[in-house]
Amino acid sequence: MKRKTFILTVLAAGAVTAVPLVKCRHVPLLKGGMLSHPRTLALFCDAETIRGIGRSYISQVPGENKKEVLEELLMSKEGYSPDDIAGGGNSVSELIAWKTERDFKEGKIVIENGWVLSETEARQCALFSLDEK
User: Fold this and answer.
1) Of 22, 43, 98, 121, which sits with the fewest C-beta atoms within 10 Å of its C-beta?
2) Alpha-carbon span 77 to 99, nearest angstrom
3) How far is it, in rounded angstroms, from Cα 68 to Cα 62?
4) 13 membership: H or E segment, kind and range
5) Cα–Cα nearest to 123, from 43, 53, 25
6) What is the pTM of this model?
7) Distance of CA 9 to CAs 22, 82, 104, Å?
8) CA–CA separation, 3 vs 66, rounded Å?
9) Mean of the pLDDT values across residues 13-30?
C-alpha cells in the first residue's frame, strides 16, 4: 500500500468513527440524582440523547413509565451482596455498577436508538426522561 493511500484510509476511518459522536458529546454531570445518571453513557451523550433513549425505552416497556416503579427496580438488591464488592458496596453507585455488570453477564440488554445498554442503564435513562417533565 502506498503511503498516500494509507494516510487517506486512516483519515477516512477516523472520520467515519467520529460521525456518531458529533451528536453525542461529553456531559460531565446530568441533572437528577445518582439513580437517573447513567455514568458511562453520560461520557458520550448529551442530556437530550439520554432523554430520547429513556423515552424510547418507556414506549417499549410501558409498565415502567412511573418514577416510583423505576426507582424501586433500580434500588432492588436481589442477589446483591455488599461483601462481594471491593469497596464495601454500600453506595448507590456501587449497586448500580454491580447491576449493570450483572445485566450484561446475564444477557439482559436492550437496544435503544442504536445504543446497546444494560437493562439497568436503560431504566436510568427512562428515569432521567421522567425527571425532566
Assistant:
1) 22
2) 9
3) 13
4) helix 3-23
5) 53
6) 0.71
7) 20, 49, 34
8) 57
9) 48
